[in-house]
Specification:
This protein is α/β, with parallel strands linked by helices and 273 residues long. It has one domain: Spore Coat Polysaccharide Biosynthesis Protein SpsA, Chain A. The chain has 10 helices and 13 strands. The strands form 3 sheets. Strands 8-11-9-10-12 form a 5-stranded mixed barrel. It has a two-stranded antiparallel ribbon with strand order 2-3.
Length: 273
């Protein structure tokens, strides 16, 4: 079983400056809930209740959010606004939250490696909160866990993107498996390729199921694109052994790390109210 979900949340959020100068980008709200709460709710829908969060300087608001605010609760107790805290209270009750800091920003691969002390020697999920996903049925993580249970190896979520946007993503190539039309055994992975060099237009989004050997691989992974330790490079080593599955998930994804995606998500969820 996948029992732990890792949230890399140490980045600076520079695309949202000045809003993120003193506010973690993961705490930016879509309507009345911060992005990271949507992510934790997705993990809980997948029966994961242990949350491991990689933070950094200026991220204290994340810890405070997933904690009881006695003064606030006392102030609104018995009033009409008390129910507004029902969802976050439920998460605090159901889940265990642990934190460690990424002292230097050296890429997603480095952030995941920083989380080893919180994860231990077991398979785990990784969720990037600024990739906000919505599906009326099983959450994206729950879908991926079903894939993991079948193949017992690392799983990455993918979606087709315009070819001219491949330089924003890790991109995979692979072969369909078991007669499916949405599940590939990965044969190649490239981090942010120029469109002319991209093997396909199937891009990795911020959802992963990783086997624990990824930590040993990351320790040996040299800095790649942008001088950072890329999770794509580490996953490629697993893929060479046939141990990475790419899954074209069912649902809608919003890139809330961009202003356009953030506004689109806000309008979408407002329309669902």
């Amino acid at each position: 079983m996948i029992k732990k979900c890792l949230f890399p949340a140490a980045g600076y959020g520079t695309r949202f400056l000045p809003a993120t100068k003193a506010t973690p980008k993961e705490m930016l709200p879509i309507l009345t809930k911060p992005l990271i709460q949507y992510g934790v709710e997705e993990a809980v829908q997948a029966d994961i209740h242990t949350m491991a969060i990689i933070t950094g300087r200026g991220k204290r608001a994340i810890e405070d959010h997933f904690d009881i605010s006695y003064e606030l609760e006392h102030q609104i107790k018995g009033g009409s606004k008390e129910t507004l805290l029902t969802e976050i209270r439920s998460l605090i009750t159901q889940c265990t939250f642990s934190y460690t800091r990424q002292v230097e920003m050296k890429g997603l691969g480095h952030a995941i490696l920083t989380g080893e002390t919180l994860i231990g020697d077991e398979p785990f999920a990784v969720l990037l909160a600024d990739d906000l996903c919505n599906h009326e049925g099983d959450s994206v993580l729950k879908q991926m866990i079903s894939v993991y249970n079948k193949y017992q190896c690392s799983v990455v979520a993918i979606e087709e993107v315009p070819l001219e946007e491949t330089n924003k993503y890790g991109v995979i190539a692979g072969n369909l498996v078991d007669g499916t039309d949405d599940t590939y055994r990965v044969t190649d992975m490239v981090e942010k390729p120029d469109p002319k060099d991209a093997p396909t237009n199937m891009a990795i989004i911020g959802r992963y199921i990783l086997t624990p050997d990824i930590f040993d691989i990351l320790r040996e992974t040299k800095p790649g694109k942008g001088g950072e330790i890329q999770i794509t490079d580490a996953l490629l080593e697993q893929a060479k052994q046939g141990n990475v599955i790419a899954y074209k998930f069912k649902g809608k994804r919003f890139d809330c790390g961009s202003v356009d995606g953030f506004v689109e998500a806000t309008n979408y969820f407002y329309g669902k109210m």
